[in-house]
Design brief:
This protein is mainly α. It contains 31 helices and no strands. The longest helix is centred in the first third of the chain and has 16 residues. It is globular and about 80 Å long.
Length: 530
């Protein structure tokens, strides 16, 4: 095979991706891999990008990269199967099955069950289409029967799903997938003992089958915590180094109220350096249960970037504000941003939002000023500062930041709408506001926030009938307290006062403490909502 070097710009893009991975900026890395895979058409780049996209749960990127990878390496089973599952998740059943059929014979057995499992959260019509396509074109092998059974179960056709599993078990009583499918269906039918018994017999024959025992333990955890605990303890006894099993056992202890045992397992994970973020998260929650805010904060702040990182940072911040005040919040978040530099932007935005909630508008402004000094063209920071400026009544500063966003991206619907609404609400420049909001609405015609802005600017222009059309549409799509305040005001001013009160009442159901609705009613002299 002829080796060819990457063009300089491609090599640069790949280096950017690798450095982004080291910094934890996986979204930036993925974008670079996607671009370079398409530009270079290199199988290795496509493979690495596919695995990263799959890890991040980026389904569209996974599909694009996996299809390219399978095109470049048609004999690669991983490429074919990844493309098949991505196609299945996209509701493209026929193409998914075509990928399975394209596998070379030497690649081993098919995995239609894996394809079906990847599609179980699709809308019902897509699952029905996949089942029909599977049964129409595939011979009833064990793999196909299990795939059919999974789809049948998801469609609540439990008797048919059970029949599929039993056909497999009649020939292969230890078939892992069929045993689990049978047990799950029996659970659905209200007879868990029957399904569990078959798995118990299989485990007696094969006590070292960790895969079956693990899935069985997870199944039991839905309905029988004591039995699940027993299975997880067996697994941990077989392999004390299995961090996934230790975490699962800890969570079973948590669900059954055995908090001391839970803490023991979680602290073992911390000592071993395994599953540390999950362990810190659950230990933090347990500290909150014990009303030990300091211990909770300590654990939350140790969580690394990942699925629970921002939730943990948010909760730590809330507890810090409650127990120590805003000054301590600032110190903690400075340390977090230094430790996890790739998360500096979301952490800054979070701190700013929390300071605004605490009416520390000056602190929020100083924080965002410093962040924008380092990243002057960051749209999220500019938008956040514009919201602070609005709260401070500084319309000139608000307009400066939103105009800057529009210079960077004239098609930014968020900035167009925010500027248009602010001009409509705070100035007599209503014609200019109408033009800005109209541009935003053309870009995002179904966005309730923009529809609400359009209704509001039409009201400010005295076009009440047109305003009501837009505001009713916005309220139907998103019955938020702000939309309710606007719609109620236009109804009141149009003479429909009982309907206005009803709209305000509905808005107060979603936000009982809405100052906007109460201020609107007071300004209009409306009676308080009952």
């Amino acid at each position: 095979m002829v080796q060819r070097p990457f063009p300089r710009e491609a090599l640069y893009g790949l280096l950017v991706a690798e450095f982004a991975i080291r910094r934890g900026a996986l979204d930036i890395a993925l974008q670079n891999y996607l671009e370079q895979a398409q530009a270079t058409r290199d199988a290795g780049v496509a493979a690495r990008g596919t695995r990263m996209a799959r890890y991040l749960g980026a389904e569209e990127a996974t599909l694009r990269l996996a299809l390219l990878w399978s095109e470049l390496e048609p004999q690669n089973p991983e490429a074919r199967f990844t493309a098949a599952t991505a196609l299945a998740r996209a509701g493209r059943a026929r193409e998914a099955f075509d990928q399975m059929h394209a596998l070379p014979a030497a690649a081993g057995p098919t995995n239609f069950a894996g394809i079906a499992a990847s599609a179980l959260d699709l809308p019902q019509p897509d699952r029905e289409e996949m089942l029909a396509e599977l049964q129409r074109r595939e011979a009833p092998s064990a793999d196909v029967l299990i795939a059919s059974g999974l789809l049948l179960q998801s469609l609540e056709r439990n008797d048919e799903a059970l029949a599929s599993a039993e056909r497999v078990l009649a020939d292969d009583p230890d078939n892992f997938q069929a045993l689990l499918l049978s047990a799950q269906v029996h659970h659905n039918l209200g007879d868990p003992a029957a399904g569990n018994a078959a798995i118990e017999r299989a485990l007696q024959r094969n006590p070292d089958d960790r895969r079956l025992r693990l899935q069985y333990a997870r199944l039991l955890a839905r309905s029988d915590l004591a039995a699940a605990e027993e299975q997880f303890r067996v697994l941990l006894g077989q392999d004390p180094a299995d961090a996934e099993v230790r975490l699962a056992l800890a969570l079973v202890y948590r669900e059954s109220g055995q908090f001391d045992r839970m803490s023991e397992e979680l602290n073992t994970l911390l000592a071993e350096g395994n599953q540390t973020s999950a362990a810190h998260f659950y230990l933090a929650q347990d500290a909150e249960r014990r009303e030990d805010s300091e211990d909770a904060i300590r654990h939350y702040l140790e969580i690394r970037p990942g699925p629970t990182f921002m939730a943990a940072a948010t909760r730590a911040a809330e507890l810090l504000i409650e127990s120590r005040g805003l000054e301590e919040l600032g110190s903690a978040f400075v340390a977090l941003r230094e430790r996890w530099s790739a998360q500096a932007l979301p952490l800054t935005l979070l701190e700013s939002e929390l300071r605004v909630e605490q009416d520390d508008l000056g602190g929020a402004a100083r924080l965002l000023d410093a962040a924008l000094a380092a990243r002057p063209d960051e749209p999220a920071l500019l938008y956040a500062r514009s919201l602070v400026s609005e709260r401070r009544g500084d319309l000139a500063a608000l307009e400066r930041d939103l105009r800057h966003m529009l210079r960077l991206d004239p098609q930014n619907a968020l900035a167009l709408n925010a500027l248009g609404y602010s001009l409509a609400n705070l100035t007599p420049r209503h014609a200019e506001a109408l033009e800005l909001i109209g541009r935003a609405l053309a870009l995002r015609p179904d966005d309730p926030a923009i529809i609400d802005s359009m209704g509001w600017v039409l009201y400010r222009l005295g076009r009440h009938d047109e305003a009501l059309v837009q505001l009713r549409r916005a309220f139907e799509a998103f019955p938020d307290h702000e939309v309710a305040a606007h719609l109620g005001e236009v109804l009141w001013m149009s003479g429909a006062r009982e309907e206005a009160r009803e709209v305000w009442r509905q808005g107060l159901q979603t936000r009982p403490d809405s100052r906007l609705i109460s201020d609107t009613m007071r300004r209009l002299g409306a009676e308080p909502s009952p």
